C-alpha cells in the first residue's frame, strides 16, 4: 500500500524526514520553540525547504539559538552574518533574530514560561483538525492572529499571523496533517502521551 503524505511534501528525503518525524509533533521546550519561531520568520517569502536546508548553518551562526548570546550581537556581528553564505542574507531577517532574543529575555526575566505563553493560545493542548484536502488548511486563524499581536507587543518581529500559523502547525499546536496522511495518527497519539505525562 502506498504511503500517503500531506500534499506539500516533495520527494526530497530531508523534507520527507521533516514531515514524518518533526512537523506537527508537539514541542514544549521554550528554547526549542524560540528557535523554531525564529526559523519560521526566516521563511517569509521563501519556501520552508530553503530554510530547512540551512537550519544547521543557522544553528552555527546564531549560537544554537541561545537567546542570551544572540541578544549581545552587535553591529560588527551583524556585518559578519551578512557575509555568511549559509543563511538568508537579509539584514531585516538577521536583525529580527536579535530582536526576538531580546524580546524572549525580557519576557522570561521574571521567571515567566515562554512555552506556557505560546501554548496558551491553543488552550495548552493541540488543536486536532480533520482536514481531508490541502485546500481546507487555513493560512492563518484567530489563534495565530492573537499570538502574532502578543509577540509583537513583546518586541518580536517577522511574526505575522501567517508565520505564527506555520509555526503552530510545525510545533504541534495544531495538527494539520491530512487525515489520510501517515503522520496524522502519530501526532494525535503523541499529544495524548504528552498529556498523560504532564
From TrEMBL:
GO MF entries: DNA-3-methyladenine glycosylase activity
Top EC class for this record: hydrolase
Keywords on record: Glycosidase, Hydrolase
E.C. numbers: 3.2.2.20
Matching InterPro entries: Adenine_glyco, DNA-3mA_glycosylase, DNA_glycosylase, Tag
NCBIfam families, per the entry: tag
Name of this protein: DNA-3-methyladenine glycosylase I
Organism: Shewanella vaxholmensis
Amino acid at each position: 500500500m502506498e504511503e500517503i503524505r500531506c500534499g506539500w511534501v516533495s520527494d526530497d528525503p530531508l523534507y520527507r524526514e521533516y514531515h514524518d518525524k518533526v512537523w506537527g509533533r508537539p514541542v514544549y521546550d521554550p528554547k526549542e520553540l524560540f528557535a523554531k519561531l525564529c526559523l519560521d520568520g526566516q521563511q517569509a517569502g521563501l519556501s520552508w525547504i530553503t530554510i530547512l536546508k540551512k537550519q544547521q548553518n543557522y544553528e552555527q551562526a546564531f549560537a544554537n539559538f541561545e537567546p542570551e548570546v544572540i541578544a549581545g550581537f552587535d553591529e560588527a556581528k551583524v556585518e559578519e552574518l551578512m557575509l555568511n553564505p549559509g543563511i538568508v542574507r537579509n539584514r531585516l531577517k538577521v536583525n529580527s533574530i536579535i530582536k526576538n532574543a531580546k524580546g524572549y529575555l525580557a519576557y522570561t526575566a521574571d521567571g515567566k514560561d515562554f512555552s506556557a505563553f505560546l501554548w496558551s493560545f491553543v488552550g495548552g493542548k493541540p488543536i486536532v483538525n480533520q482536514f481531508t484536502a490541502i485546500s481546507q488548511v487555513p493560512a492563518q486563524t484567530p489563534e495565530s492572529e492573537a499570538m502574532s499581536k502578543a509577540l509583537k507587543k513583546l518586541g518580536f518581529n517577522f511574526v505575522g499571523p501567517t508565520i505564527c500559523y506555520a509555526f503552530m502547525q510545525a510545533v504541534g499546536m495544531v495538527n494539520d496533517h491530512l487525515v489520510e496522511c501517515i503522520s496524522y495518527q502519530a501526532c494525535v497519539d503523541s499529544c495524548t502521551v504528552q498529556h498523560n505525562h504532564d
